[in-house]
Amino acid sequence: MHELLIKQMSYLVRLSAEEKEWIAQRFEVRSYRKNEYFLREGQVCREAGFIVEGLVRYVLTKDSGEELTVDFNKELEYTCNYASFLDKSPSYTAIQCIEPTTIIVISYDGLQELYKQVAEGEKFGRLICEFLYVQAIKKMRSLYTTEPETRYLQFLDAYADLAPRLPQYYISSYVGVKPPSLSRIRKRLAK
After folding, report:
1. Angle at which helices 121-145 and 108-117 cross, to 10°
2. How crowded is residue 75: how many other Cβ atoms within 10 Å of its Cβ?
3. Burial of 18 (0-12, 13-18, 19+ CB in 10 A)
């Protein structure tokens, strides 16, 4: 399983054979059942993960108790509440496995060691952070400036392979509408 992580990392940075072995020894494989949490809201995120198999959603709970799905990660993507991970604050979101999910994890201290031990480790971390920053800005802009139908089309563009794997109420929550509104949007688009 570590070979998938190493392959993904190798798309961003060069890794020597020794560094690949070092990485394989530092990341731990974890398996989660459907609906199990990688991280609960209010916990400090102490690990970053790479999803080998499965699917997770980021869940934010409003004061009213309503759950909002704010993002998804799937196979070959990284998962973590980076704000909590970096400043060790309680996480404002939960990360829930929507399917049986296998995640390769590394602790905060382990990642700091990776930055020192792997020649391009800091570059790897910077590239991941830059990607996440751009995604967050795009998502925030979309929520403030686009109509729900456009957000749904953006969801389909970004997550076309996920749509069949997700309950419609997760998709409607992600788009920012109630399920009946998503049904109307889907009917209009089907015409």
Report:
1. 130
2. 14
3. exposed
What CATH number is given to the structural domain containing 88?
A: 2.60.120.10
- Full residue range of the structural domain in which residue 86 is found: 2-118
DSSP string, 49-91: EEEEE-EEEEEEE-TTS-EEEEEEEETT-EE--HHHHHH-PBP
Please tell me the distance from the alpha carbon of residue 104 to that of residue 71, in angstroms, as a whole number.
Answer: 19
pTM beyond 0.85: the answer is yes
Residue 60: inside a domain, yes or no?
Answer: yes
Question: In the 8-state DSSP scheme, what is residue 35?
Answer: T
pLDDT tens for each residue of 3-19:
989 999 999 999 999 99
81 belongs to a structural domain: yes
Please state, rounded to an integer, the average pLDDT across all residues of the chain: 92
* Residue 43, in any domain of the structure: yes
Is position 17 within any domain?
Answer: yes
C-alpha–C-alpha distance, residues 36 and 20, integer Å: 30
Q: How many folded domains does the chain comprise?
A: 1
